[in-house]
Amino acid sequence: MKILLLNPPSPRGEKFTREGRCTQQSAIWTTLWPPISLVYIGTLLRDNGHEVKVIDCPAQDIDINDVTHVIRAFCPAAVIWSVATPSIAGDLNFSSVVKQLNTGTYTIVFGTHVTVIDKTSLEQSPSLDIVVRNEPEITIMETITALEKPNGLSNLTSLPGITFRNAEGKITRNTPREFIADIDALPFPDWSLIDVNSYRLPLSNRPFLMVMPQRGCHFPCTFCTGSTYYGRKLRIRKVDLIVKEMKEAVERFAIRDFFFWAETFTANPSFVRALCNAIIDNNLGVSWVCNSRIDTVDGELLYLMRQAGCWMVSYGIESFDPDILKGVRKDIEVSRINQVISLTREAGILASAHVIFGLPHETPATALETKRRVLELELDFAQFYCAVPFPGSALYEQAVKEGWLDNITALDFAGFRQERAVMSLDTITRDEVEAIRARAVREFYLRPRIILGILRLTSFRHIGKTLLSAIKFFSPVKSKVK
């Protein structure tokens, strides 16, 4: 079969990364990520005899008109695309575009949002055929195998991990699928399916790729959707396979920068030590970044990570208020935050933090105190967010139960962006949350130390673009909090 895989265009031309728990719009300190799920799916389908085309519309500046020309020319039997919560209305409506071009083309979507809001998404999108729930690779492979046989949709009745509309229009939610027990059985993602030069690190403008070292996260943070996509059990790949994959990327694509795509890369420190030693022993000469928690690293591990090429670690700090952290089941010790950030800097690694304003029990006083404490840290970067209860998180279920959301439906999630506050809490208003976040961004980045650090990382050829982005990013926002 001919299969078209897409990161779809957004109606307003916004550039969205739609990857697992990360459904975000590109901004000044972020970049579009290589679509690792699409490439994994495409590689698996191609290795099983299908003709595959992968298009990342935001990365290639392909709009809705361009993609319709692609569909007409390629004539795929199925179009499969990733979806995101803030762009879900347009993502689901894309199915009607496909069906208008060819009513016989199967339309299939995947992602955390539709994993949770599957039946409603199908009910409100008559042109959508199939929703793939949880991690998508094997489920999509088996779905395409079933559709290839006579009577297409009729073959999906017992296929686990999907919700679908049969030939008579009835929507059926099949049994869940077990998560892939042996993730080493997946093929290496073949990045030749996309233009790897479309993905550049911010500031330095160097090309980079993503490597999946593990899947799953056993930490119970209520605001995260990671376990919805990849489960709670930590599944770790063999170190020698990860090193081999990275070596192939260096040799085939001249890529030496990587992002380890894992919810918490350092969740198993023994694995990290083994991987770092293997990278060093094989003289890969690569640079990489990762996500971490302050309770999973120490000075010795950080130093080894630096020797293996790690140049930045992003820590999920979220808040400096112990009661707020306890409420969202983020079990870290506030007293250890300063120490770990200092250890990271001492190891020669840049330190970044993720901070969330407006979580349950937040007040203007606790938010402003978190802002003050973050500004005191020896950080190089910080990402400041408003608390968003994305579908697939325990926080979403709590927000629905407590009535913190106003009239949200499956196609009314446009405001679910991490620069927007969508929960109506008794302890802090939406306007206060957004104003404190905006102030935190300005106060953090408009400091001489941070500006000089950013300029040191910025390539000379890229500095003009960075400055233009900064001017737009820091355009005045009227603060509502004194």
Molecular structure report:
The chain is an alpha/beta fold and 482 residues long. The chain contains 18 helices and 17 strands. The longest helix has 16 residues, at 430-445. The radius of gyration is 22 Å and the shape is globular. Mean pLDDT is 92; it is low at 471-482.
Strand arrangement in the largest pleated sheet? 4-1-5-6-7-8-9
Q: How many whole angstroms does the radius of gyration measure? A: 22 Å
Percentage beta strand: 15-25%
Count of runs of 4 or more consecutive helical residues: 18
Main beta sheet: 7 strands, mixed
Query: What overall form do the CA principal axes indicate?
Result: globular
The class by helix and strand makeup works out as alpha/beta
Helix percent band: 25-40%
Would you identify the regions where 5 or more consecutive residues have pLDDT less than 50?
Answer: 471-482
